[in-house]
What does this fold into?
Amino acid sequence: MNEDLLASAIDLAQKLGAEYAEARLHGTKEIGCLLRNGIPEPATMGDFYGIGIRIIHSGSLAFSATNDISKENVKGIVESSVKRAKASSSLLKHRILLSEEKAIRANWRAEEKKSVENVGFEELLELLKDIDLLIKDGRRGVAFQNRLLLSSILLEEKIYMDSNGAVIRSRVPRVGFHSYITTSYQGKIATITIPSGYSQLGESGGWEVIDRLKIFDYVQKEAENLALVVKNEQKPPRETMDVVLGPQVVGIIAHESAGHPGEADRILGREAAQAGESYLKRNDLGIKIGSKEAYVSDDPTIPHSNGFYLYDDEGVPARKRSLIEAGVIHEFLHNRATAREFGISSNGSSRAVSYDREPIVRMGNTFVEPSDYSLEELLEDIKFGVYIKSFMEWNIDDKRFNQRYVGLEAYSIEKGEVKGMVKNPVLEITTPKLWSSVDARGKEIEFVSATCGKGDPMQGAPVWTGGPNMRLRGIRIGGR
It folds into this structure.
């Protein structure tokens, strides 16, 4: 990767009158392996490399990108960007301004013990074949008649440079797995996933991630549980009760009802046509949204996490962001432009997934904070309730206010003990009601990986979602 190319692009933009310029060389290499019922499908392979350039001239911002990184072509890209910015500046109601940030020089990377560059299609395929052998015969009389298993490696490398003097190099490899399984039992067909809820197993790191995930033990356990889920026909009670949510359910709730509505660009209305709006307004910092036990954070600096990064794509150091503290809206996610509008510094939430995508406000790893309860302690004083350990589907409105989660692996609770399975309990609730009902959180935290979609053109960003077991009081539960 060529720092001189970036420096020359920024220098030219400034000579042409730009108030600000940044350039990002961004490469992504990926390998994907698919196994359908033990038979390999064609591999997916990609190698994307190019430069993205943003300039501000006369208060107007222009973004351009190209995979032709010859000096002459990049020169032309800079010149056309300046022309476009100048031409549109007279139409602006508000000038684009960025928060003042310290110019950083850094070279960082995710920990990688077994380089992903030494892993090929053969290793990915063997992994999937070994997993398929574990589950191909089904479980407990439930046939897993159609099995689609997917494994992937993604290597992301960048050099970022801006006119403030920042120069940041980065390297993040990621390894992941997920699956889709069609089951058959007594003539009934169902589609399930491992992990459930269309989530993924994934971390940043080298090929050692597979061992760290304990993927074979995980798949075996999930296959057993999902067979029981498919066979179960016990409908959940439809009434008001106490509910304990498992880490996977807690994670998707944190992501959807605290993370997305806390994105400052969304709060300012800039995502309305693509991903929706937010129930939060710009002056809502400090308002009470939940109980004193409601704590939600976003932290991209967690080692090995799927959403791991140490500096964002505007050169700002990443840090933990406290979205909800003791039920109070505490912090929004910001890039440099939204931070300037709020009169604060950026908290390092700007990410782009490819050279041809502009950095936008994104989550990293969003989760409910743990407390000090064991699962047994969360259950012990519940006379009658439901434990929703995992989910199969969810939806939420454009303002992230009304939402619905359908349980997958779920159990009744009677006199403080987990009893038999119940089929697909439905939690349908508003965001304030949900967070106001939280009265206790477990001490063990778990994560699953996911791909968070946002933007137009779409940007699918790697993230983690998670949390501990969490107890809600007095919740109305329904069924499908």
Remarks:
- The domain at 3-231 is CATH 3.30.2290.10 (PmbA/TldD fold).
